[in-house]
Amino acid sequence: MSLIDSITAWYAAHMNYASITALMTIESSFIPFPSEVVIPPAAYVADQSAALCTTGNYPVDVALIVLFGTLGAMLGAIINYLLSIWLGRAIIYRFVDSKLGHMCLLSREKMEKAEAYFNEHGKVSTFVGRLIPGIRQLISIPAGLSKMHFGQFLLYTFLGAFIWNTVLALLGILAHGNMALINEYSHELSVAILGLLGVAVVYFIVKRLIASTKR
Length: 215
Hints:
This protein has 11 helices and no strands. The protein has 215 residues and is mainly α. The relative contact order is 0.13.
């Protein structure tokens, strides 16, 4: 049994708001752990508990699951952000290239991809990056390396993590906790959300341009 399988089995027996926060903190830091095994199962259990009017020791409020999941994601992102400022780029890349970094499934390629994405898209990438697989866990590192304004970092991280956790919660309910379906469609949902955001941005830009021509 892999480490993730062991943690998933433990989580199934200890599913509560504290464990959701803790695992999402891990997921959002440099330690790899998929959010797909945290939020969707909890949301499904909560939805079923509400439908059957049972509580037990499990979380029963989907909104609170999303909230505590987002809190955990922010804590993990803050860890990455502060470590990046404290350690600096050279040490971060040295860690990425080390055996321990590879054990954490990190690589220079992944780190360079996240840094390039941040440099290309600027501060808003800490929001959009939370919706992109492979970038999600690492986007806070280049934000720290660039010493992005902490308040803006928190705001963008919160918005991105909240949207993603909401999507995962809905997916967990609709998929009836089926992890195969959740894993299959979580990537497609990321693409769909980014597409909708792109359409919204284009709409507001066009709307502003039209308004400016009528003045």
